[in-house]
Fold this protein.
Amino acid sequence: MFELYLTAVIFGLTISGILFLVSVGICIGFGLMRIVNMEQMVYYTFGAYMTYALVSSTGSFLLGLLCGTLVAAGSGYIVETQLLRRVYGKELMFTMVVTFSVFMIGIGLIQYIFGLSSKPVGMPFKVIVTIMGANVPLYRVIVFIISITVYFLIDMFLNKTIFGRAIRAGIENPDQVQGLGINIRRIFTITFVVASGLAGFGGVLNAPLVGVTPYMGFEMLLFAFITVILGGLGSLKGTLVSALIMGQVVSVGGTIYGPLAFVGPFIVMFIVILFRPTGLYGVKGRAFGFEEE
């Protein structure tokens, strides 16, 4: 029994890592650009399908990882420069509709190219490791380690570099940053491209674990929003902490009682919001994009 729950905990850490990677874009998008970029999950799906295509044709997972991440980042660049720049400053609901439309167009494009059936992606390696008596795939452990490493790299970038500090300043007061001669639009673009690439990177890592389907982004979009809302919109640390919580709720909760894998995250979110409407690390007065009176 102990080994069963320990395995569930380790699997939950893998889920947490993927959730963090795909939620970063939504977190940063709201924190910096004040938009709810619902199309982030189409980059996640692009990354997964690019991995499937290249693993199937070349057998190289690393090539799929590289190309999947680059395709997601490139798609994010096109969307940000050609579309999102036109909706900055618009009402929150308007940006949600626009970005969700991009998401649906991307899903339609995937269906046209790859069809409707699910596609399997082989594991890059099948090594099994034993942790305190529980046998778990090494790949799952590596996925979690990669995700935590990404968090620390982003945190160091935001706090230790000039460009990162400009991003943080842009989150607090974009008009003042613009007045100092810093091109806030360029910051928006670079940040958005990196966030889109991370979503694609998450899709690449998750493809061998769940396979790829045209609608794989829908379920992930739901859980990503729960993760960001629970952690606090715009909070990187909150996104990581809530991803860790969500992963365990889905994995361990599902092990205890199957339906908890889907219902549990909603229950946790509602409980937290009852006591902290801004989420675990949200900024007071900015919960869900509304200013406090």
Strands lie at 128-131, 134-137. The chain is about 75% helix and 5% strand. The chain has one domain: 2-287. Residues 285-293 have pLDDT under 50 and may be disordered.
